[in-house]
Amino acid sequence: MSLFRSEQMEFYNLVIPRESAWDVMNTLGYFDSVHIIDYDSTLPQINRPFSNYVKRCDDVLQKIGQIDGEMSNFKIDKIYCPDVIDLLEKRNGGHKQFEELEQEVCKVADDLEHQQQTLNSLQEKKNTIRENLEVLRNAVAFQNEDSEEASLLGFQKMVGVIQKEDELRFKRIIFRITKGNIHVEMMDIQEHFIQQDKRTVQKCVFMLFYPCGDLTQKKIQRVIESFSCNRFDIPISPEQHAQRINQLENQLTEADQLLHLTIAQMNKRLQGLAEVKHNCSWIEEVRILATKEKYLYMNLNMLNMTNSVFHGQIWLPQGQDQKIQQALRNLHGNDKQLPSGQIQECQTQLTPPTYYKLNTFTYPFQEIVNTYGIPRYKEINPGLSTIITFPFLVGVMFGDVGHGLLLFVCGLYLTSEDARKSVFAGLVPMRYMILLIGFFATYNGLIYNDFLSMGLNLFGSCYQLVDGEYQLQQDCVYKFGIDPAWGSSANQLTFMNSFKMKLAVIIGVIHMTFGIILKGFNTLHFNNYIDFFCEFIPQFLLMICSFGYMDFLLFLKWSTKFEDTKDAPSVITTMIDMVLKPFDIPEKPLFESGEQQRSIQLLLLTIIIFCVPVMLITKPLIFSLSKKNNQYQQIPSQNPDDDANHEQLQNDMQKDQSQQQSRVSIQQHHEHDDISELIVHQSIETIEFVLGSVSNTASYLRLWALSLAHSQLAEVFFSMTIAGHVGQGGFFGTIGSIVQFPGFALATFGVLMCMDLMECFLHALRLQWVEFQSKFYKADGYLFKAYSFKNIKNKEKED
C-alpha cells in the first residue's frame, strides 16, 4: 500500500554527454519518476552552465505575458490546453525549436509594440486636437468685456487645458507665484478624454490674465510645464477663428478614422493569436513550450558538468529503472550519431525522499499531514488514517443530522462538473473531505439524536409518560443513539453534558493509543528494538493502565444498572483514589468486590510506576554499556600486507566518494553520539509523554465543548426565530414561520455552517497534529519532487 509507507527508492548516478543533454532531459521529462539532486544548492543560478538559456526563456515568457495582456485589453478569449503532455508530444521538435519559437514570439511582440506605439501617438494626437478645438469653442465665453479691458490695460493672457483633478492645485500655485496679481478663468469640458493607459479623465480649459513681464511669464510657463498642460493660441479675427475650428474638425475626423483602423488591425492580429492550431490557442501553446524549455534547463543546471559531460545523482522509485534505460536506448536507436545517457545504480548513505502515489481523493488529507511536516522515509504515513479520523473528529464536534446532511449535499455538488465552473471552484479539491465530514456529522447527529436542535423519534421511545413522569419500559433499549425522551427531561442538558464529555475522553484515549501502536510498528520496521522495548512497551502500558483503565470503568459503569443513581460511583473519584489512596478499599466499587478492585488498581499503579524509570534510564544505560564494549575492539596486525593496503585504498576511495556526496543538501537523520545528550533527550521525552498523557487527554474535551456549543447555538437560533410560530400552528403560525424563516436560515448558515464549521476544522487539526501525530510521527523527511513535464501547469489552472 503506497499510502501506508513511502515507495521504495533506489539511488542512481546519471551520466549525460553534453551533445545529448537536451534530448536526454527531454526524454526523462515525460516520466513522472525522476528526482534530481542538486549537486550544489548554494551555487547561484547565474554561475550555472545554462543560466543564459534560462534568462532567454524568461525574456520570452515576459514577451508572451505582454501579448497576453494586450489580448486581455481587447477582451479576446483564449482556448486553454486540455492536455499539456499531448501538446508537448505533438510539438516535440528538438532543442532548436526554442530558437524558432523565440524569433516568432519576438517578432509578434515587436509588431504589437509598434502598433501600440502608433495607437498611443494617434490617441495623443486626437486628444491634442480635441483640446485645441475645445479651447477655440470656449474662447467666445472668455472674450467678454473684462478680457477686452485687460488687453487695453496691458495684461497678457495664456490659454490651455488641464486635468480637472489638478484644477485647485493649479490655481493655488499660480496665485502664489504671482502674489495674487493674476486672474484665472476655468471652464469644464463635458466629454471625457482617453489617456494612453486606458484611463478616462475629465479636463477643463483655463485662461490666465497677468501683467506684462518676462519674469512672470516664465514662472507661469514653468508651472504649466510641470502640470503637463498644453497651451494654445487663439486667433485674433473671427474669420481666422472659424477657419481654424474647421481645420481642427477635419483633422479630428482623420485622426479618429486612423485610430479605428489601427485598433481593427491590432484586434485582427490578436484574434489570429487566439486561433487553435493543435489543441489550444497559439499564445497558450508558446507559453507552455517556453515554460517547458525553462523547466528543462533549470533541472539540467542541477547536474555537475566536467569535461563536456554532465554528472548527477537521481532517485527513482523501485522498478522504474528498466523503463528509463529502455527510453534512453530508444533515443540512441533513433539517432545513431547522438550519444546516449546512462544511469548506474549505486549505494549511498543519503536519506531517500518520501514519495506517495496520490489521487484526487487522498490529496487533501495528505496535505493536512504535509503541512505539519513531511513523513520520514518508510515511516508510517498518518495520511492514511487521517482519511477517517480527521472527518470523524470534525463530525463529533459538528454532530447534527440537519447540518450534516446539508454539508453532505454540498460535498455531492462539489463532485459535479458544474461546481468547477462556479464560484465554489476553489473548494473542489476539498470535495471528498467535505463529503466525509458531512457523513460523519450526520452519523454523530443520529447518535446525539439532534436535528436542528430537535429530537427525532425514529424507533419509538423506551419511556412512557405516566402521571406526568417518564417511566422506563422493562427490558427496552433504544436501538441507536439517545432516546428522544431525554429531550423533554428537566436534566437534559446535564445528561448530554456527561455523555459527550465521557465520549470525548473515550475517543481521545483510543486515538492516542492508536498513535502509540503505530510507533511500535515503526520501531519494528526499522529494526530499532531498543526503542521498541524501552519506549513503545512502557508508553503503551502506561496509557492502557491509566487512561485505558478509566475508559474501561466508563463502559463498566454504563453497563451496570443501579437501583439508585446516588449509589453509582464517580469515575473521577475512583481514579484519584487509585493514586492517592492505593491501599484503601473503595467505598463504592464498580467491581463485584472492593478487594478485587483494589488489587487490580494496585497492579495497574505498579506497572505505571515501573514504566516511568524504564523510559527514563534504560535506553541511556544500554547505550553506555554498548559504548564501553566498543572500546575493546580487535587490535589490527602490525605487519600489514598487500591485501591490507588494497583494503585501505578502497576505504579511502569510499571516503572520497562520501565527501563528494556530502555536498548534496539533503537533510540527514543523526543519532545521538554523546551519552549526556541522550540522557537529556530521554528525560525530555519521558516528561513530555507522562505529562502529555494527562494534558492531551484533557485536550480531547474540546470535542465535548464544541459539540455542546453547536447544539446550544442551534437551539437558541431555533427558539428565537420559528419555534414559537411552529408550536402555535394554524394560519398565523404558518405566516409567522414563513416570515421568521429567513432569519433562521441566515443565522444557521452564517454562524453554524460557516464559522462553527471552520472552528471545528481548526480544533480537529490541533488534535490531529499535536495529540495524535506526536505519539509516533517524526516529520523530518523531504518530498520526492519528480522532474516531469506534468508540473507545467495550464494557465487556466493557475488563474
TrEMBL record:
GO terms for cellular component: proton-transporting V-type ATPase, V0 domain; vacuolar proton-transporting V-type ATPase complex. It is found in: Membrane. GO terms for biological process: vacuolar acidification. Keywords: Coiled coil, Hydrogen ion transport, Ion transport, Membrane, Transmembrane, Transmembrane helix, Transport. It is a multi-pass membrane protein. Residues 633-667 are annotated as: Disordered. InterPro entries: V-ATPase_116kDa_su (IPR002490), V-type_ATPase_116kDa_su_euka (IPR026028). Residues 112-139 form a coiled coil. The chain crosses the membrane at residues 390-414, 426-448, 503-521, 533-556, 599-618. Residues 648-667 have a biased composition (Low complexity). One of its GO terms (molecular function) is ATPase binding. Belongs to the V-ATPase 116 kDa subunit family. Essential component of the vacuolar proton pump (V-ATPase), a multimeric enzyme that catalyzes the translocation of protons across the membranes. Required for assembly and activity of the V-ATPase. This is V-type proton ATPase subunit a. It comes from Paramecium sonneborni.
